[in-house]
Specification:
Layout (H helix, E strand, L loop, with lengths): L3 E7 L2 E6 L4 E4 L14 H23 L4 E12 L7 E12 L3 H15 L1 H6 L4 E9 L1
Parallel strand pairs: 5-6
Antiparallel strand pairs: 1-2, 2-3, 4-5
């Protein structure tokens, strides 16, 4: 079972460690009392989502024998005004370079978002997630 720990360092900055042996830092913007020295926890949610989708897409496209030389995923999100300030909408955009079939890319994107990506599965009931793509040759 994964175990994560957050240790306060100063201000509202924390050092996070995981049972897999990795570490990262979170902070908050200066406007809310942070030092703006690291990603916010809410930014990490977006990083988790696009990281999860990236792993899924790379694995599926390789399995589908779709040669690509670059894969980039961006997330643009809008938060609620009221607390808790969860994401209302997240727009994902996949940019891929290579000889990739659009049909297979769309299938992989759909499978990732709606079947395999655990992060998406955790937030889809409260957040509208849309996807677009660009294929570069």
């Amino acid at each position: 079972m994964p175990i994560c720990k957050a240790i306060w360092t100063d201000g509202v900055r924390f050092l996070h460690t995981s049972s897999s042996g990795h570490a990262l830092v979170t902070d908050a913007p200066e406007t809310v009392g942070g030092g703006n020295s690291a990603p916010t926890p809410m930014e990490l949610v977006l990083h988790a989502l696009i990281g999860c989708q990236g792993v899924d897409l790379a694995m599926m496209l390789n399995k589908m024998k779709q040669p690509f030389t670059n894969l980039e995923i961006t997330a643009e999100a809008e938060r609620r005004d009221e607390h808790p300030r969860i994401y209302k909408n997240i727009a994902l955009h996949v940019t891929i370079r290579g000889e990739v079939s659009e049909k297979k890319l769309l299938r992989a994107m759909d499978l990732s978002l709606n079947t395999y990506c655990s992060v998406a599965g955790m937030i889809q009931d409260t957040t509208a997630i849309t996807q677009t793509h660009t294929i570069l040759k």
